[in-house]
Amino acid sequence: MGSKLTITFDSGFVTTDIHLGGSYKLVLNDAGEYTFSGRFHNSGLTNIKYVLGVVVMSPGGSPGATGFSFSHSGHTDGDLEIGGENDDNFIQTGFKQVIKDRWKELGFAAFVGTVKPRDTLVGGINDLIEDIAEEGVKKLVLGAVSYVLIGVSPTV
Q1: Which of 18, 105, 134, 156 could form a disulfide with 58 if both were Cys (CB 3.0 to 4.6 A apart)?
Q2: Is 156 part of a structural domain of the chain?
Q3: 66 or 12, which is more confident?
Q4: Distance from first CA to last CA of the chain, Å, rounded?
């Protein structure tokens, strides 16, 4: 078995709108194998959950343009988490037939990725506020219905 040809897509350093940054890389070879890896670091106080999605779009050709994707769900602890892990390092390997089948076009492919982080403390507070607001709306609706149907003011 001879050496394999490879193509590497590298994100460079990526930042987000909250205290999470890092990078990711995708290495493909002509046998259809891939290595999707990355490292993200949390530089803030609170924990972060995030999702990374990457798409490789090959240009047209026979039978036309083709896209394939990779994803990773990660978690980093903030500095408030005693003994926590501020880094999320990941590596995924595998095989995709489309890589092997479309190899000749992949040198011209587009590589696009996005990271969607969520601060778990802020997210948890927002969820709590939404739950409280939803419960309040239910009580208001129930109270209004009770008043209209039986003329009794609700006690809250």
Answers
A1: 105
A2: no
A3: 12
A4: 76
CATH of the domain at 22: 2.60.210
Q: Count Cα atoms within 13 angstroms, Cβ side, for 44.
A: 19
Query: Of the given ranges (7-11, 70-74, 117-121), which has the lowest mean pLDDT?
Result: 117-121
- pLDDT digit string, tens, across residues 89-135: 999 999 999 999 989 889 888 899 999 998 776 555 455 445 555 55
Residues in the chain: 156
Calpha distance 8→3 (Å, rounded): 16
Cis, peptide link before residue 117, omega less than 30° from 0: no
CA 34-90-108 angle, to 5 degrees, is: 35
Query: Is 78 within 8 Å of 86 (Cβ atoms)?
Result: yes
Residue type, 99: I
Quote the pLDDT of residue 119.
Answer: 79
DSSP 153: P
What pTM, to 2 d.p., does this model score?
A: 0.74
Q: Amino acid letter at 35? A: T
Considering its fold, how many domains does the chain have in total? 1
Rounded Cα gap, residues 54 and 41, in angstroms = 18
Domain assignment of residue 77, given as a range: 6-119
